[in-house]
Amino acid sequence: MSWNIWLLYVSLAGAVILSPGPSALLCVSHAISHGARKTIATILGGITASMTLMLLSALGLGAVIAASDTLFHAIKWAGAAYLVYLGISTWRSKPEVAAPQTVAQVAADVAAVPLPQASLPSATWGQLYRKGLMVGIGNPKDLLFFSALFPQFMNPAEPVVGQLAILAVSWMVLDGSIMFAYALFGSKLLARMGRGGVGRWFNRVTGGAFVAAGGVLAASGR
């Protein structure tokens, strides 16, 4: 793979990941509710979803999704329904505020002491991972990128495995770094907005944004 092709891929992939979407919103929401450290599970779920879509694209199934109206709309409606469900759940949930974390604390793998929440069981890493996976697998930006743009970076005349490894590692580094930056932003936002009623209103705003994203996805065309 030439440097020009790789740089073009990194530029496009970075722009797709950086643009705000359901996955970024989920990372910010989870960072505020559970802390930046535990949001790593959400990020890993999103990366797993991206790698799944990338593998399907490499196997030629991306072209099938792009060509099949039935399959495309099935994935689209499933993603929209999950976003609406996630929005309603977030809207109705009570604020579960984790103590803010600094970059140094997260890098040192030292969790901040959470506030007592006896009536609100903390989400597990597995639960956060599954939410990140479900939102990522139905992310319209990733579906479009991997079904329409990604195959163009693969040269059929060259070994596929090597190319796929380069593209996959590049995506994982970009996705992990950018989503973690969103999580740190959410953690910093917590420190500024405080607790109590503000947290409740944040849940409502975030829940409404998820529902709106689901509506936009459901109403969107190809």
Summarize this, please?
The chain is mostly helical and 222 residues long. Helices cover 74% and strands 0% of the residues. Helix 3 (39-58) runs antiparallel to helix 9.
Order of helices and strands: HHHHHHHHHH
H/I helix tally: 10
Helix content: over 70%
> What's the number of extended β-strand segments?
0
Counting helices, strands and paired strands, the structural category is mainly alpha
Categorize the overall geometry. Answer: globular
Strand content: under 5%
The biggest beta sheet, please? Answer: none
Gap from first CA to last CA: 30 Å
Query: What is the mean pLDDT?
Result: 74
The stretches of 5 or more residues where confidence is low (pLDDT under 50) are: 96-101, 106-120
Description:
By secondary structure, the protein is an all-alpha fold. The protein has helices spanning 3-18, 22-34, 39-58, 61-67, 69-92, 103-107, 125-137, 140-149, 160-193, 197-219. Helix 2 (22-34) packs across helix 9, helix 3 (39-58) runs antiparallel to helix 9 (160-193) and helix 4 packs across helix 8 (140-149). The longest helix has 34 residues, at 160-193. It starts with a helix and ends with a helix. The model is unreliable at 96-101 and 106-120 (pLDDT under 50).
List the helices and strands and how they pair.
Layout: H1 3-18, H2 22-34, H3 39-58, H4 61-67, H5 69-92, H6 103-107, H7 125-137, H8 140-149, H9 160-193, H10 197-219
Helix pairs in contact: 1-9, 2-3, 2-7, 2-9, 3-7, 3-8, 3-9, 4-8, 5-10
